[in-house]
Amino acid sequence: MAQTVYINGEHLPLAEAKVSVFDHGFLYGDGVFEGIRVYGGKVFRLDDHLCRLYRGAKAILLTVPLTPEKMKAVVLECCRRNQLQNGYIRLVVSRGPGDLGLDPRKCVDGATVVVIADSIALYPAEVYEKGLDLITVVTRRNPPSATNPAIKSLNYLNNIIAKIEVTQAGCFEGIMLNHEGYVAEATGDNIFVYRDDRLITPPVHVGILEGITRAVVLSLARELGISVMEEPFTQYVVYSSEECFLTGTAAEIAPVVKVDGRVIGEGRPGPITRRLMAEFHALTTREGVPIGLDEVVSRA
Ligand code: PMP
User: Fold this and answer.
1) 69-119 tens-digit pLDDT
2) How far apart are CA 200 and CA 206, in angstroms?
3) Which contiguous run of DSSP H or E holds residue 137?
4) What range defines the domain where residue 64 resides?
5) Which protein residue has the closest C-alpha to ligand 1 atom 12?
6) Residue 300 confidence (pLDDT)
7) What is the spatial distance between Cα 46 and Cα 249, in angstroms, rounded to a whole number?
8) Is 147 inside any structural domain?
9) pLDDT greater than 90 at residue 298
10) CATH code at 56?
11) Is the pLDDT of residue 121 over 90?
12) Are residues 171 and 151 both part of a single domain?
């Protein structure tokens, strides 16, 4: 568990790491966040996560009080202090404390920046062997013309309502359709299908988060010579696909073997999915920004 948490320039013991009840992140979900993995003492795709964070902040007119370079240093320092060899980082930038109205101009102290270095286990290990059984939820993904899902905002109520539907149905995950009925993504992951020798994932304009893992999988697939498409598709395409899987920082690559009672392919993780899982894990051991844990250990 996290021992120290970074809040606005200080690394505080967990019990002292507190945010104001007037913070608009708490009152309104006004802010942006990232979930980032650490593999073998190296932060995976840190620059990509920071790029998405700053883009989202710009889109909601939120000034991040640190430069990306400084933010990077803070993330690495937080990992070192928590001896995070393998784990999960939650980076949160909220609008900061204001009054009880919506107006962000009242948040005069500026944004609250929090970095938590902890662990995460999204699905049980057997999911990766046997695959997920998904349902399509009734709750539609927010249309891009409202709160654009491409912004990883602190306002996750759309996903949480969908997640409740999923858990009430006894599942771990579910598919969210967009406002037009096209497949968008899972409640906290992106979705891929393999059908007619092509790997297909919905394009960002359908109304999804531009997942970092999604981008990694797209480039791994291209390197493996797999034909890759970003195009909108319906539930019918999912039901009639040969393989299906979800991607996310926490989920990594999670095979899907059943959707709304329809068995996908042979009902077990398919060869393309397993190949990509293996390549993805190999990449996580090769790549990443070292947190410099050895320095701490040798200094101690
Ligand atoms: N979609 C949603 C709604 C998410 O919250 C996430 C992250 N948990 C993803 C997709 C996957 O994105 P990433 O690969 O960047 O973690």
Assistant:
1) 999 999 999 999 999 999 999 999 999 999 999 999 999 999 999 999 999
2) 13
3) none
4) 4-120
5) 211
6) 42
7) 11
8) yes
9) no
10) 3.30.470.10
11) no
12) yes
Are 29 and 69 members of one domain? yes
CA of 37 to the centre of ligand 1 (A): 12
- Amino acid identity at 46: L
pLDDT in tens, 240-286: 999 999 999 999 999 999 999 999 999 999 999 999 999 999 999 99
195: β partners: 198
pTM, two decimals, is: 0.96
Among 152, 159, 177, residue to substitute to test ligand 1 (most atoms within 8 Å of Cβ): 152
Atom nearest to 48 CA in ligand 1: 15
Q: Residue 295: pLDDT band by 50, 70, 90 thresholds?
A: low
Give domain status of residue 58, yes or no.
Answer: yes
Residues 240, 136, single domain; the answer is: yes
| Domain match, 33 and 76 both | yes
Res 1: pLDDT: 80
The one-letter amino acid code at 238 reads: V
Is the residue at 251 inside a domain? yes
**17 and 155 both lie in a single domain:** no
Could you give the number of structural domains in the chain? 2
165-190 burial, b if ≥16 CB within 10 A, otherwise e?
A: bbeeeebbbbbbbbeeebbbbbbbbb
Ligand 1 pocket mutation pick from 189, 191, 204 by most atoms within 8 angstroms of CB: 189
* Mean pLDDT, range 201-217, rounded to an integer: 98
CA angle (268, 274, 276) in 5-degree steps: 140
105, part of any domain: yes
Q: Which residues' Cβ are closer than 6 Å to ligand 1? A: 35, 159, 185, 188-190, 209, 211-214, 247-250
Q: Assess whether 136 and 250 both reside in one domain.
A: yes
The CATH number of the domain holding residue 174 is: 3.20.10.10
109 and 133 co-located in one domain: no
Report the catalytic residues.
152
> Is 296's pLDDT higher than 60?
no
Please report, for residues 52, 160, 237, 274, the alpha-carbon distance to residue 133 in angstroms, rounded to integers and kept in the order given.
30, 19, 16, 17
Kindly report the protein residue whose alpha carbon is nearest to atom 9 of ligand 1: 189
pLDDT > 90: percent of the chain = 95
Q: Can you give the pLDDT at residue 110?
A: 97
